Amino acid sequence: MSTSPSERTYAPYAQPLWRRLLVSREASVIALLLIVWMYGYGNVPYFGDTLTLTYILVDMTTVLLIALPMTLVIVTGEIDLSVASVVGLSSAVLGLGVQHGLGMPLSTLLALLVGVVCGVVNGILVAYVELPSLAVTIGTLALYRGVAVGLLGTTAVTDFPSSWTDQTAKVIGATGIPTFMIVFAVLAALFIALLHFSPFGRGIYDIGLSTEAAEFSGVNVQRTKLILFVLTGTVSALAGIFYTLRFGSARGDNATGLELQVIAAVLLGGVSIFGGRGKLPGVIAGVLLIGALSSALRLEGVTVNVINIIIGLLLVLSVLSTSLLAWVSDVSARRNRAKRPSQTPSSVGSQ
């Protein structure tokens, strides 16, 4: 039996390109971000100021950075809950280095190396020892945080060079966009190319859909997971350096609870917690949506508790939308199959 050359039988490509781009969770998050921004710009005092834009971007830079590798990890069906502890540990190492006269360049390098080591530990335990990533990273969350607090105790290192701390507040001309966003833009481009336009990225999706099938198709599952956890640890350490310089304070308890914000933003951006689905543009939009919505509500005098409730409800709805979209797609596919004329035995034999 032959099929028409124009017929697409693979479900994700059964619809036209415009429909696949516009009718998706990623597109809905981007549209919701634009709605919040336009509404706030016209109705919330000071929301349209460049100062507000600067505040939103600086406030969400740490989450934006960590969300990039976290997206890749969750697409494989794994998770890393230790990212905030890596931020705190890298902050503590940076502070200790400056405190002992190592200088900022060497202290920064040591902080990044600590992130690499943390990622290697997580990756080996998950990929090669084959322990559940949830259990592993809950354990290393406590481990890395305990080491960070143990290194600095209750003290805080604050004597960072102003030439470094001032970089987190600088903006590009009169745009209100922080200069550090250039670093994020470069990393975002690299991660988007890695996930969406490389064989390595296709392997990530294969692992999320089926580890066994990925192995049979030639994907080195263990090595891929190790690389992803190393990337997560390294970028988390970079986020820890930015976090420390932004507040001018190195403490072992820096960024406590940040992992929940990162995971919420990734899921809100359209990534499936079960793996195999998600796009980085939607995740970036999800982070910015949380930042813009929080800023607009704060300027309107809404309390932090109410803001958390609203964002939590938004996250629950976004997760439920996955099942809803799958149900709608299934119903639509069944209707399309029912409308196709069934072939008679004679027609089949003539082919």
Report low-confidence residues grouped into runs of 5 or more: 1-10, 347-351
Mean pLDDT: 85
Kindly state the percentage of residues in helix. Answer: over 70%
Number of helices in the DSSP assignment: 15
Class inferred from helices and paired strands? mainly alpha
The CATH class label is Mainly Alpha
First-to-last CA distance = 6 Å
Say how many strands there are.
Answer: 0
C-alpha-based Rg, rounded: 23 Å
Q: What would the CATH topology be?
A: ABC transporter involved in vitamin B12 uptake, BtuC
Question: What pattern of helices and strands is seen along the backbone?
Answer: HHHHHHHHHHHHHHH
Give a description of the structure.
The relative contact order is 0.18. The model is unreliable at 1-10 and 347-351 (pLDDT under 50). It is built from 15 helices and no strands. The protein has one domain (23-42, 52-325): ABC transporter involved in vitamin B12 uptake, BtuC (Orthogonal Bundle), CATH 1.10.3470. It is 71% helix and 0% strand.
Gist of the model:
The chain is mainly alpha-helical and 351 residues long.
Secondary structure layout:
Layout: H1 17-22, H2 25-43, H3 50-75, H4 83-99, H5 104-128, H6 133-152, H7 162-165, H8 181-196, H9 199-209, H10 211-216, H11 221-247, H12 258-268, H13 280-299, H14 304-339, H15 345-350
Helix pairs in contact: 2-13, 3-8, 3-9, 3-11, 3-12, 3-13, 4-5, 4-6, 4-11, 5-6, 5-11, 8-9, 12-13, 12-14
